Amino acid sequence: MAAASASAPSSSRALLALTLSIACLAQLAAGDTNGVYEPCSDAWIQRGDGFSFGVVFAGYNAFFSGNTQLSPCDRRLNLASSAQLAVFRPKVDEISLLTINTTTGFNPASAGGFMVAFAGRKYAARSAPIFVSNTSFTVSSFTLVLEFKKGRLQNLHWKKDGCGACTGKSNFVCLGKQTCAIRTQSCKTQGPVDCSIGIQLAFSGTDRHESVLNSWYEVSNLRQYSLYGLYSNLKDTLSGQFNKFF
Ligand SMILES: *[C@@H]1O[C@H](CO)[C@@H](O)[C@H](O)[C@H]1NC(C)=O
Ligand SMILES: *[C@@H]1O[C@H](CO)[C@@H](O)[C@H](O)[C@H]1NC(C)=O
User: Hey, what's the torsion of the CAs at 123, 158, 61, 172, to 10 degrees?
Assistant: First the structure.
């Protein structure tokens, strides 16, 4: 288990600076054989490696050119002018909870309200855009599955969590019968709830040695939100919004 966090995402204009600093800081951690730190480059991973990917926040249409959704690494999108970027480097096949603190300046609604997870260039993969926040509703809990085939990223997809955990709770609203959202006016800085974004991560598929990645299987067997209790360092922060309901 691991928890990683990014502070307020930097503007993607700072992508180069950010990724360079990651590369400089990066001493290959024990067991990490992946020397690729830049999310717009191609990695070929094995279990236990670090894997860098990005999450971009922007308006829904900003991810498309015509009717085609492009990789955020594609310069034709021109995300640099408006989008916000967070870069993470979780360990392959470890269940991780990534957090983005939204109480200290970064506002996903003003960044455009949607996010896309992505990595790679020749082997470019990107998730569909997923709704995070507007002036009415904010979704703070996400599950992202990174799917590899022989060590190459094939796909990133958001798993719908369902509304089981939000029925009957006054701050929560069920959107589209499949996503729990919090009323944005309840979120700090307007209200009492820390609506910081938590992204539960899982891996599926196979690594470069064709070893099977199992963490998705573990996550799918755990009940929604039950994982929050496992991240003891976040107990008083992220999980605070759930504690009073369980
Ligand atoms: C906010 O998003 C919700 C869910 O996507 C949508 O139903 C609603 O119309 C949006 N409200 C505004 C003010 O954009
Ligand atoms: C976000 O940052 C604030 C201020 O530093 C802190 O009080 C809060 O616990 C943080 N929330 C999360 C989820 O880390």
Answer: -160
